[in-house]
Design a protein that fits this description.
With 155 residues, the protein is of the alpha+beta class. It has one domain: Beta Barrel (OB fold (Dihydrolipoamide Acetyltransferase, E2P)). The chain contains 5 helices and 8 strands. The strands form 2 sheets. The chain has a 5-stranded mixed barrel with strand order 1-2-3-6-5. Strands 4-8 form a two-stranded antiparallel sheet. The chain starts with a strand and ends in a 9-residue tail after the last helix. This is TNase-like domain-containing protein. It comes from Hymenobacter glacialis.
Length: 155
């Protein structure tokens, strides 16, 4: 069931605190994986999402379950006057703010969206695909190895 709300806090580019029906809850966006806050482009991706969502922009949230951390797993759409609502996960991938992460292939064209961002060198793909690590790979690195990534490339 889709519910209307608004984002009151961007935790990182794929995790938000949403206020809906007088209750605030944490949402983990399905279909994408965004850089961690300590990862190259992590803060830039989160800041870009925060500017997009703004403090008063309405969102439409469809909860699909809970994760191990107690976050609601959900899809989110952004209403646009007179047009179909935009899927936030697709927007993040197209703008290069997150990786497409759709292991069950629920969204047609998701790989093409990411390929478009890579080809156009948008967001985290600005310096090309070499040296760009998905968050699950980033978390496995130690401090010394993390310092080697994203050096010399600015957002």
């Amino acid at each position: 069931m889709e519910e209307a709300g608004r984002v009151v806090r961007v935790v990182d580019a794929d995790t938000y605190d949403v206020l809906a029906g007088g209750v605030t809850y944490r949402v983990r966006l399905l279909g994408v994986d965004a850089p961690e806050p300590d990862q190259p482009y992590g803060h830039q991706a989160a800041d870009s999402v925060a500017r997009l969502l703004g403090p008063k922009r309405p969102v439409l949230v469809t909860r699909r379950g809970m994760d191990l951390y107690g976050r609601a797993l959900a899809t989110m759409r952004l209403p646009v006057d007179g047009k179909p609502a935009l899927a936030l996960d697709s927007l993040l991938v197209v703008r290069g703010w997150a990786w497409a992460f759709d292991p069950k292939r629920r969204v047609a064209g998701r790989a093409a969206q990411q390929a478009s961002a890579v080809a156009a060198r948008r967001g985290l793909w600005k310096c090309g695909a070499v040296g760009v690590l998905m968050p699950r790979q980033w978390r496995k690195l130690n401090y010394k190895n993390k310092r080697r990534y994203g050096v010399g490339c600015t957002w």
